[in-house]
């Protein structure tokens, strides 16, 4: 479900375009007390997806992690024959690059994120991606039979670490999810948070595609498994009926 207020929200025109119905006119008529027929909700042969666009590159030092406050500076809507085509078209339209190499870095903070992305990690393995992971993620994936190469933590000062991989241009995209407070000592969690922030910030500064949400990352993996960038067609809105 998505919020759709009777104000000049961004969701309202998006739903109008996706459903091919001028809901703004209908809302105005309803507000004026006119008789309005309910929208029949006709099935469509396409999917419409709206994704946020962020400006973390312009916000020096900002941690690209979404919280409750509004962080997007715009949105992109795209249509597709299915959710994967629509989502991939939309997210690439925000400026994110399609992965240039089959190499991914994973740092999945918290057990929930690890469990959520197991299927995505297996999908990447099937696609021929080389998985690089921090120690905790590396050990977790190993339990599920997903091979990965361990990457040292930044604050340990050991190599190879994430900075090394970025400097050498060896990462196609990254997934760095913040650690939450667990049964670990506060010092260990704070260290992990510090590492995570540095890795996320380095990714933004160097233009490496990065995800900080496991569900979104899994959808992205499913999308690139279904479509190469050459598969995405340029079609007008009127072609989606």
From TrEMBL:
SUPFAM superfamilies: Glutathione synthetase ATP-binding domain-like (SSF56059), Methylglyoxal synthase-like (SSF52335). Keywords: ATP-binding, Ligase, Nucleotide-binding. Gene3D superfamilies: ATP-grasp fold, B domain, Methylglyoxal synthase-like domain. Transmembrane segments: none annotated. The keyword ATP-binding applies. Residues 96-241 form the MGS-like domain. InterPro entries: CPAse_ATP-bd, MGS-like_dom, MGS-like_dom_sf. Pfam families: MGS. It comes from the Bacteria. GO terms for molecular function: ATP binding; carbamoyl-phosphate synthase (glutamine-hydrolyzing) activity. The keyword Nucleotide-binding applies. GO terms for cellular component: cytoplasm. GO terms for biological process: glutamine metabolic process. SMART domains: MGS. PANTHER family: CARBAMOYL-PHOSPHATE SYNTHASE [AMMONIA], MITOCHONDRIAL, CARBAMOYLTRANSFERASE FAMILY MEMBER. This is Carbamoyl-phosphate synthase, large subunit.
